[in-house]
Specification:
The structure is a homodimer of 429-residue chains. The first copy, chain A, is an alpha/beta fold. Chain A folds into 3 domains: 4-135 and 304-324, NAD(P)-binding Rossmann-like Domain (Rossmann fold, 3-Layer(aba) Sandwich); 141-300, Dihydrodipicolinate Reductase, domain 2 (2-Layer Sandwich); 343-424, 2-Layer Sandwich (Alpha-Beta Plaits). The first copy, chain A, contains 14 helices and 17 strands. In chain A, strands 7, 8, 9, 10, 11, 12, 13, 14, 15, 16 and 17 form an 11-stranded mixed beta sheet that branches. In chain A, strands 3-2-1-4-5-6 form a 6-stranded parallel beta sheet, with helices on both faces. In chain A, helix 1 crosses helix 12 (304-324), helix 7 crosses helix 8 (177-186) and helix 13 runs antiparallel to helix 14. Chain A starts with a strand and ends in a 5-residue tail after the last strand.
């Protein structure tokens, strides 16, 4: 039949397994809606004898991943194994063989996207990765297609459900970081080794992809500034709340006067910002541009079902192009563009200090900021006997100057400790 | 040049004028990002001598719209004139001539979409209408592509900024409908003749399109149940608020046991629902499905800039397909499917009654609902001397049965008036 597309899967874990189950169980419904006959032909797994919650004819499962790619009955390859190796070689081989590839692998795209995109363009086949950012939230396609003509100014996203769950628990129940992390692990929102999430590494890969698509300038994974949430304390969240802010781990991609900048770090957001109310494991992406003003996309950012839904959307799209024999021009062109040095990018800082509560301390601190040309927006002081806690929020200044100011503070006599530094995103300068 | 696409516009009003200005002023930026050389070749306007805020070479403006369609230098037609006639004939002629069409015309698509979609399929050219629903919010593409594999359960949208502005003012400032409407007119959010917005007609066209795309069953404009906001009073909003609800005009498209149903009417939404916090002229669309759980898209639903941004995204996409000579299969297939009779669809009602405050009145009212097999969820009473106001919220029951119950109420001796009926959308049965 001319509407049949043979599908090969690399991986059958949470996302792959869900996708297979849906391709099998909803075969008729998908056919009615799309006109496609999608057939699972080959699936690469580590252990073909492991029990699965889907049923496929004998011989479909294989341990040899390259066989999935080279099987002549496979016209379209879905990569859901994760990691860079061997995923890179397999995806490249599929593209070089003229087979469309759908992947949910954010790390692969962020770290080695340009080589794969170049291979896809060379062969005129689609390489789609809607599920790589925001799980079930449609964001890649809107960014690279619907907003292709928009001169996007900034993209900010809550793109990691684990850290948003932890920060929400800390914020709503006053929990400390360790307690909230343990709860997230018990509930399955965090891995036994949570490093990839809490360090911001997962979000950084997504920030790189968002920045690349939003600005048409490829931003590599190693070019993303990254800080995790490990040092955020219940006290930071409490101080932020008193000033009308919420603390979120954000992926920020922005066009600055110095070039494109992508970064991931904890942010103090005004409580009324649309991203401030995104709770728990939900993800959300907020886009600013001159014509669209502001757009918000929110939904489930991870999990087998939502992610498989996004992969399936890409599979349907790629299958249609494959059947049409269409060589559609790439969805977005990446041109060489300047990347900003983060030290030159304007940021606003919130600095929490433990100081000796003595006359003149504030004057010394203000002078330290002044020397670095950083102007102070507000000071909030809370005395505790002979010591006091100061929370200083600055106006916008180059990140590098903020750092110099903070270093100067650390060496001031009455400053016992710079307890925390969290950047502030707010509309005012 | 092989990357040049000649564009013809039908209409140069708010959206068309903005699009032309952007195509001219941002020609280089768009080229850098997309690789396309988009040239405005012909523009149909009513009065070529009227001053415009864009500059085009002499001879580009014409009063003869069909000349835009037939001009051999025009490869792609953008229809932003609105209305069904003569837009239908012009769009059909363009498609029949093998030219891709981009339109922002919700009424045209909702009322006569099937004929145009058939023509586009016959010729293998794209017919794109991202801007027809939600203005600058990417929703058509996510619904018909990213979510193509999702068995969507329900779509609910705030898709008319005028009515949401009016309801927001009524809700936040206690204004009556007429006052809020006047303010909306002064501020330019409502037309001098606001009928199309306040009657729900604009939202109904969008509901038809959302239902058709979400369920793959074509729902015509005349098949959408429609009620406007003209009868919503400050008192309704106040009572709703006391019970924890917000009143919104929603476009609802849902898959029911009886078939697909599309409807537009005022709705009492729980204050914590994601759509409840959408204020002013902002639009938002909320999608529920088994895999994606819930998705929210929010942004500017109207206005020249956001709408032109969505049109431009479609133009870029259609231009790419045109240059590729690609005949990609249609984005979504429409199959004959059952449409539900609204009388059979389960709804929950909130009924506000003015009654004589005498013993036994509640028993009579409860009996009236009981006779129609409608069960009461809650009763809220406020006495005012010899009369009392009752607000009754029912559990879910067939719309037809709810109507019978309300009719019975109207004829009860102690019921002075059924003052308002507003449907409730809440997760509980």
């Amino acid at each position: 039949m001319e509407n049949t597309v043979g599908i090969g899967l690399l991986g059958a874990g949470t996302v792959g397994g869900t996708l297979i189950r849906r391709l099998v169980e909803e075969h008729e419904a998908i056919g009615a809606k799309t006109g496609l006959d999608l057939q699972v032909r080959r699936v690469a797994v580590r252990d073909p004898d492991k029990p699965r919650d889907f049923t496929l004819p004998p011989g479909v499962l294989t341990e040899d991943a390259m066989k999935v790619v080279t099987d002549p009955s496979v016209g379209l390859v879905v990569e859901v194994m994760g990691g860079q190796d061997p995923a890179f070689d397999l995806v490249l081989a599929a593209l070089d063989a003229g087979k469309p590839v759908v992947t949910a692998n954010k790390e692969l795209i962020a770290a080695r996207g340009p080589d794969l995109i170049a291979a896809a363009e060379r062969q005129g086949v689609p390489l789609l990765f809607e599920a790589a950012v925001g799980g079930g939230i449609p964001i890649i396609r809107p960014l690279s297609e619907t907003l292709a003509g928009e001169q996007i100014a900034r993209v900010m996203g809550i793109v990691n459900g684990t850290t948003n769950f932890i920060l929400t628990r800390m914020s709503e129940d006053g929990q400390e970081y360790e307690t909230a992390l343990e709860e997230a692990q018990v509930l399955g929102y965090a891995e036994p080794d949570p490093t990839a999430d809490v360090s911001g590494a997962d979000a950084a890969a997504k920030a790189a992809i968002l920045a690349s698509l939003a600005f048409g300038t490829w931003v590599g994974l190693d070019q993303v500034y990254r800080e995790g949430i490990e040092k955020v304390s219940a006290l930071d969240i409490q101080f932020a709340a008193e000033l009308g802010y919420v603390i979120k781990l954000l992926a920020v991609a922005e066009r600055t006067g110095r070039g494109v900048c992508a970064r991931v770090h904890p942010v103090m957001l005004p409580a009324e910002h649309p991203l401030a109310s995104i709770r728990g494991a939900t993800n959300a992406i907020y886009i600013e541009g001159p014509s669209i003003d502001e757009l918000l996309f929110a939904g489930p950012g991870a999990g087998g079902e939502p992610t498989a839904s996004a992969v399936l959307g890409d599979v349907i799209d790629a299958a249609r192009e494959l059947l049409a024999g269409a060589v559609v021009a790439p969805r977005i062109r990446f041109a060489a563009g300047a990347l900003a040095d983060f030290g030159d990018v304007t940021t606003k800082w919130s600095v929490r200090l433990l100081v000796d509560d003595e006359p003149g301390v504030l004057a010394q601190i203000a002078a330290a900021f002044g020397e670095s040309d950083v102007s102070i927006k507000s000071v909030w002081q809370e005395g505790q006997g002979s010591e006091a806690t100061l929370l200083i929020v600055t106006h916008g200044a180059a990140e590098g100057r903020q750092r110099v100011a903070a270093d100067t503070l650390r060496h001031l006599e009455p400053v016992r400790e710079v307890e925390s530094v969290i950047r502030v995103e707010s509309p005012e300068a």
